[in-house]
Amino acid sequence: MAELIPTLNTCLPKMTSGEKRFARRLEKLLEDDYLCWFDIPLGGKRRYPDFIVLHPARGLLFLEVKDWKAENLKRLSHKQVDLLTPTGLKTVANPIEQARQCCYQVLQVLGRDKQLQQPAGNHTGKLCMPYGYGVVFANINRKQLDDAIPEEHRSKLLPSHLLICKDEMIEAADAEDFQARLWGMFNYQFGAKLTLPQIDRIRWHLFPEIRIDAEQASLFPSADGDEPEGDAPATALAEAIPDIVKIMDVQQEQLARSLGDGHRVVHGVAGSGKTLILGYRCLYLAEALNKPILVLCFNITLAARLRSFISVRGIGDKVQVYHFHDWCGEQLRAYHVAVEKGEAPVWERQVTSVISAVERGDIPQGQYGALLIDEGHDFQADWLSLVAKMVDPETNSLLLLYDDAQSIYKAKSALKFSLASVGIKAQGRTTILKLNYRNTREILNFAYALAKDYFGAGNSSEDMPLIAPQAAGNSGPQPVVKRFESLEAEAAYITRCLLAWQQRGKSWKDIAILYPGGTAGKVIAAHLKKHAIPNAWLAASQFKRNYNPELDQVSILPIPSSKGLEFETVVVLDASFSPVEDAELADDIRRMYVGLTRAREQLMVSYHRQTPIGELLEGLV
Ligand SMILES: Nc1ncnc2c1ncn2[C@@H]1O[C@H](COP(=O)(O)OP(=O)(O)OP(=O)(O)O)[C@@H](O)[C@H]1O
Q1: Which residue is closest in CA terms to ligand 1's atom 25?
Q2: Which residue ranges does the record assign to the NERD domain (predicted)?
Q3: Taking 90 as the threshold, does the pLDDT of residue 37 lie above it?
């Protein structure tokens, strides 16, 4: 079964009946290795081919689908068709010409990419894969078409090999015949099978909005409308082409494009692109909704990182990003509600005050067009119940992202309740992402080897089985574990390493020093200061709030504050320390897993205390 992006269910509401039928045939009559896209603007331009079909061996095909009736076709030219519609006679583009223009526009772009050119032979430098275009007449049988248009016109204006007619796409159509029709639309067949990196490159060129790292192009075309035929390609497509491209994988793309309205839950392992999908979704929603969009997470530093992501993309006026407790404070301020008195810490009382104020109607429900929750695993049941009420029932757009393996605050949360009990409809709406892209294989294997036996420790719930991550990243150096006599000795060694790494060209901002808790942050900050190494010690809330990943300084963070962040190099200091008295080993391990999985390429762990977690770390190298 071919993969249709977005999913058929997402597309159905905006499809014509002919498009629906054709989409079902594509899904059913093509094999798993076909990718089909429906109605996606190409390269940020307002050119929507109805369908694009890509097959590694067959190539790339652009299709227009028309629900026209034979008797309504009145006059035909190369460029135009006069069509009788319920509102009178209309002149529209000849669909063959529409599909052809789409196809050639894309070919211009793909053809400039050296890695998509033929490396040798008579056609060196030409595009390495076949391509074609055609039209689907979902309501006209072949004979009706033949009868309606004289042969001499048809062969020039609607060549029969470029068409699929109603009777050739019936439910009982034979897969081989159907495919033969599709591939009959190609003028040539040549070239070797496309490799996976080549397929990624094709997607990278076609859909700039799902690129990673490089400036993601807007999800939407400019307001200027179509560019005339033959114009230079959109800027997004004309830029320099990198040797290695990074793009969402097909599952991520499918998910991002299919989120639609209603509640959705994404259960993804560490580094599987949850935050990436959240970012894509924000861009989409900012364009589609008038009401404000709320992004919530638990961690103050992650909120700062997300805020910087949102503001760089120019959607800060539509998307509000808060960590949960900050948002509660804002609500109380905005609606002039006093914090309840009591013994509990103020941040807890702020939460209960908001809950009561919403119940009383002093703070309105349904304030936001959409709600996106990152780090859902750290939210308690009553927090989720509260924020779920904040979504406008008309859009009902709620996205919850979580990874139970990273639940550090297990005692209170770890989603041990069912999502239904807090008003989140997860059943049949949950997607699981298993591939970890962030860490090298070595780092992921190291972190997983430490944590795998402890993940399950009483921590999964009915909605959320724990998931083993699969490595999708590159290979890199083995993590290093070092034991020292004291915290001072650890800090002195790490400082020497930092200076040496910087000498070799590493930027300060690529490095983070993480620690489980206690005094390690203070000690290392003093060492860095002594050696004039720029750093930001992000332990206190006011510093976390202002965290700016772009500043060239080493980040020093307690592990819990590093959730959701990532760095090229991570050093975990005082790793065998357990900050919570009488903590279960599973809790320490889970915290350590979060810290280790923040490292993209290089990981060093240092410790001096003889504790169970120290022994486990020692045993890993
Ligand atoms: N398909 C992909 N190809 C290459 N890199 C990817 C892909 N998907 C995600 N990444 C990269 O992997 C890293 C992790 O992504 P992200 O921060 O979105 O993951 P996450 O699921 O939110 O992680 P965590 O829960 O651990 O914070 C980022 O650097 C992101 O750019």
Answers
A1: 270
A2: 17-112
A3: yes
176-to-28, 29, 281, 580 alpha-carbon distances in Å? 12, 8, 38, 65
The minimum-distance atom of ligand 1 relative to the CA of 406 is 25
Listing from the earlier edge strand, what are the strands of the sheet with 59-66?
3-5, 35-38, 51-55, 59-66, 131-137, 163-165
Is the CB–ligand 1 distance for residue 595 below 6 Å?
no
Q: What does the chain come to in residues?
A: 621
249 lines ligand 1 (CB under 6 A): yes
3-state secondary structure of 302: helix
Report the nearest-CA residue for atom 5 of ligand 1: 437
pLDDT tens sequence across 110-145? 999 999 998 888 778 889 999 999 999 999 999 999
Strand 430-433, strand 319-323: pairing: unpaired
Contact 132, 59 (CB under 8 A): yes
Instruction: Enter the pTM of the model.
Output: 0.88
Amino acid at the residue 190: F
The Cβ of residue 228 has, within 10 Å, a number of other Cβ atoms equal to 5
Cα of 400 to ligand 1 centre, how many Å? 16
Distance CA 142, CA 165 (A): 6
What confidence score (pLDDT) does residue 416 get?
A: 64
Alpha helices in 158-216 (DSSP H): 175-183, 196-206
Mutation to probe ligand 1, out of 200, 201, 212 (largest number of atoms < 8 A from CB): 212
Q: Which of 275, 401, 593 is the pocket-test mutation for ligand 1 (most atoms within 8 Å of CB)?
A: 275
Judge contact between 64 and 135, C-beta under 8 A.
yes
Q: What is the largest CA-CA distance in the chain?
A: 92
Atom of ligand 1 nearest to the CA of 212: 31
Contact between 545 and 299 under an 8 Å Cβ cutoff? The reply is no
Q: Report the C-alpha gap between 45 and 225 in whole angstroms.
A: 8
Q: If you search the block for the tokens 């804002």, which residue do you land on?
A: 330
User: Is residue 100 lining ligand 1, measured as CB closer than 6 Å?
Assistant: no
Taking the C-alpha atoms of residue 194 and residue 56, their distance in angstroms, rounded to an integer, is 5
Cβ of residue 279 lying under 6 Å from some atom of ligand 1: no
Buried/exposed code over 85-111 (b: 16+ C-beta within 10 A; e: otherwise): eeeeeeeeebbbbbbbbbbebbeebbb
Return the amino acid letter for 432. Answer: I
**3-class SS of residue 149:** coil
Coil/strand/helix, residue 402 = strand
For residue 310, report the distance from its CA to the centre of ligand 1, in Å: 16
Ligand 1 nearest atom to the CA of residue 598, by list position: 26
Q: Which residue has the higher pLDDT, 44 or 161?
A: 161
Using one digit for the tens of pLDDT, what is the confidence trace for 279-317?
Answer: 999 988 998 899 999 999 999 999 998 998 888 888 999
Residue carrying structure tokens 């990182």: 305
How far apart, in Å, are the Cα atoms of 261 and each of 9, 266, 371, 397, 419?
11, 14, 11, 5, 18
Distance CA 576, CA 588 (A): 9
For residue 252, give both structure tokens: 């991520």
Contact 244, 212 (CB under 8 A): no
Cβ(248)–Cβ(212) under 8 Å?
Answer: yes
Q: How much of the chain is in helix, strand and coil states, percent to nearest 5?
A: 40, 20, 40
Percent of the chain with pLDDT over 90: 68
